Amino acid sequence: MRGFAEGLIDRPQTVAEQVANVMREAIASGTLKAGTALRQDELAEQFGFSRMPIRDALRQLEAEGIVSIHPTKGAHVAGMDSAEIAEIYAVRELLECEALRLSVPALSGGKLDEAEQVLDQIDAERNVGRWGALNRAFHLSLYHACGNQRLLGLIEAHHNAADRYVRILLSNLDYRKRSQAEHRDLLAACRQRDGKKAVSVLRQHLREGSDTLVNAIEGGGLSRKS
Amino acid sequence: MRGFAEGLIDRPQTVAEQVANVMREAIASGTLKAGTALRQDELAEQFGFSRMPIRDALRQLEAEGIVSIHPTKGAHVAGMDSAEIAEIYAVRELLECEALRLSVPALSGGKLDEAEQVLDQIDAERNVGRWGALNRAFHLSLYHACGNQRLLGLIEAHHNAADRYVRILLSNLDYRKRSQAEHRDLLAACRQRDGKKAVSVLRQHLREGSDTLVNAIEGGGLSRKS
DNA sequence: TCTCGTACACGCGGATACTTATATCCCCGA
DNA sequence: TCGGGGATATAAGTATCCGCGTGTACGAGA
Q1: Nearest to A213, CA basis, from A183, A168, A178
Q2: In principle, which of A60, B77, B101, B216 could form an S-S bond with A20, CB 3.0–4.6 Å?
Q3: What is the pLDDT of residues B48-66, one digit of tens each?
Q4: Whether the Cβ atoms of residue B84 and residue A150 lie closer than 8 Å to each other
């Protein structure tokens, strides 16, 4: 739920936010695997801060759905079973298709050019860690003109929740190629101001991602919910 | 974002959660008006707890969008301008219509009877404070069979965010009558397993609520964002 | 008199040390 | 072998402290 209108107003960054950012990245990158116990004292020592901001950060991440906290049992990196992945993708499809539908008529040529540049960057990028961020940037750039900040916030939150898994997808060269082809189709439909077409391409794109992930996780024996 | 699968697993309630619950109710009921400063040590003294759980509670409420926190300036009861109300209702429409669409074919007769009982309770209820809760219970009871916990969680979160304003609506006798009529239409469509009809009634219902609220707030001079 | 700068008070973020409660594990005895 | 009880680990909560950014009020200078 982070990021409703962030960046618009300058807020001094708190330690808790910095910690949350670092941990979010660590979880997304797989450094912290699903199910890992996140001990407050341990983290406090590692980061060199006291327990207080660490708790704030954990609460924050819990709200984002990538950490689960049980009173007396503590915080763990949230796992995802394939059912939950399917749920997240179903919600993403709902939210993002709506945002795209609203956004397409309002998209400026400049924004579209920006989106295309992001696609070129993805093709050029060799660092696995950056793909996730670029992928997200591309998607969000198409939705920005939707005019509903809250909707964008939710979409961003769900990108966060799915980030770890998107990275798994993107590390697969085959999927990445297909994904990029779909991205270019999507962009083309947007350039033609064909909202219906764009939405249907996006819907297909997300379903493919979801299916690929669910198969990978059900078959591949990835670490499960704690 | 609270309440994804709450209640299914017994978690000992933390002080922070209790505090959050009390404050959520206080904000929804209007006891705490929009813009009110929420000073940590003041609250700590009032509740008789230390600052730590109060901070946790404030973070929680911030994630729910009903409190805004600025480092160094502290927490305030979040206001809503009419634009934000429109946004929330647009998202609610999207989420709830989808949940209903998925849910209708799976709704058991028992669930429908329960929903009808809730409607009867609303008619009988004289206490303004309870209407909001009953109204929410009715809506959620129709969505429960949608099979997507995450979607239900988001819907609940948006009910929380809109709660204060729904209560304003419901304290208006005229709106309440119309609303109840629409609720019965909605229920009837569900009984007929007519998903399309049900969704269209729901959509109309939510749009009416949104419009009524936006007009009330733009005209009525309600307290604004801090 | 009006404006600008400074100084002070307030309240938050954070640190630290300590207490309490709870879950888990392991061992010991029936 | 199994079940109960204690030891241990860890989270939740308490009490207090400090530093710093912000807002404000007051006094000095134009």
Answers
A1: A168
A2: A60
A3: 999 989 988 999 899 888 9
A4: yes
Does the residue A1 lie in any domain?
no
Q: Residue B182 and residue B189: Cα distance in Å, rounded? A: 11
For A147, the token pair is 């005019």
The rounded average pLDDT for each run of 10 residues, N- to C-terminus, in chain B (226 residues) is 42 84 91 91 91 90 90 89 93 98 96 96 88 94 96 95 88 92 97 97 97 85 42
Residue A64 and residue A91 share a domain:
no
Tokens, residue A47: 């980061």
Nucleotide C7 C1' to residue A3 CA (A): 37
For an interface test with B, give the residue of A18, A87, A103 to mutate (most B CBs within 10 A): A87
Q: Identify the closest residue of chain A to B13 by CA–CA distance.
A: A71
* Total structural domains within chain A: 2
Query: With an 8 Å Cβ cutoff, is A55 touching chain B?
Result: yes
> Do the Cβ atoms of B1 and B157 come closer than 8 Å?
yes
> CA(B56)–C1'(D18) in Å?
21
- Are residues B97 and B185 located together in one domain of the fold? yes
B147 strand C contact, CB < 7 Å: no
Q: Which residues of A89-108 are buried (b: 16+ CB within 10 A; e: fewer)?
A: bbbbbbbbbbbbbbbbeebe
A10 in contact with B, Cβ within 8 Å: no
Note down the domain range covering B33. Answer: 15-77
